[in-house]
Design brief:
Blueprint: E1 7-10, E2 15-18, E3 26-29, H1 32-52
Antiparallel strand pairs: 1-2, 2-3
């Protein structure tokens, strides 16, 4: 089992996603749910390609955090 961070961003009329650990592995979709499924499918294809090429599957190293920014911000 593998686990990869996936970043999903809202664009003007759709959603886009990528994984920092899998360069070039991206997906889009009309809804959050659609882009999530499309990204899952893209990662599966990406990994199958690595396996077919006898290339190693990269270890997941990306992480994410939300930072609270508040009272120290001035205009």
């Amino acid at each position: 089992m593998y686990k990869f961070l996936v970043v999903i961003e809202k664009a003007d009329e759709n959603y886009s996603s990528y994984s920092p650990d899998l360069p070039g592995c991206v997906a889009t979709g009309s809804t959050h749910e659609e882009v999530e499924q499309n990204m899952y499918d893209a990662i599966v294809l990406y990994m199958k390609g690595l396996i077919e090429d006898d290339a190693p599957v990269p270890a997941s190293q990306a992480s994410s955090e939300y930072l609270m920014i508040g009272e120290h911000v001035t205009a």
